[in-house]
Amino acid sequence: MAETIRVTGLRETQRALYSYSQQLGDRVVLGALRQGANLVRKQAQINAPVKTGKLRRGIRVSRSKIHRGRASQDLIGVYISVRKGKNGAFYAPFQEDGWRAGKRLVPGKKFIDRAFVQKRSAAVDLIVRTATASADLLARKLGL
Asked: Which tens digits make up the pLDDT trace of 31-86?
């Protein structure tokens, strides 16, 4: 289940960034989104069940691949996932979403969803502060 946050009030900052360069604007916005996502990731690591610690260590913030190679304004984003592969916790979806054991449903722990709900407002505030500060720094460096 993907949940999204719409950040309002950044339109002017985003417009000023993109007026100079799409790539610089994307870099600043992506950095701010990563800051907010890392805040949620830390809470998800706290909420994650720990038996071996593999699930907790495997929670990562990744960049959304939707935006790559296209000129857009609203498709840039990041997401939180659990590392896959040989060293990843294959059981992460079962812990998060639950599973069926015969006819009975074993409910999921929803540790990532709970982390999102707990840190949503703090993450939005951090995203706004980081994007504004980065935009001001970029404007000073470029002399805008």
From this structure: 888 999 999 999 999 999 888 888 999 999 988 777 665 555 556 778 888 888 78
Task: Give the number of other CB atoms < 10 A from CB of residue 17.
Answer: 23
Conformation bin of residue 3: beta by default, left when phi > 0, alpha when psi is -120 to 50: beta
φ and ψ at 61, to 5 degrees?
-105, 125
Q: Where are the domains of the chain?
A: 49-109, 113-143
Number of neighbouring beta carbons within 10 Å of residue 70? 7
Number of H helices, E strands in the chain: 5, 4
In three-state secondary structure terms, 94 is: helix
Separation of alpha carbons 141 and 118, rounded Å = 36
Work out whether the CA dihedral 16, 22, 28, 31 comes out positive or negative.
positive
Half-sphere exposure of 63 (CA within 13 A, CB side): 11
Distance CA 129, CA 60 (A): 22
pTM of the model: 0.78
Question: Would you say 99 and 121 are in contact if contact means Cβ atoms under 8 Å apart?
Answer: no
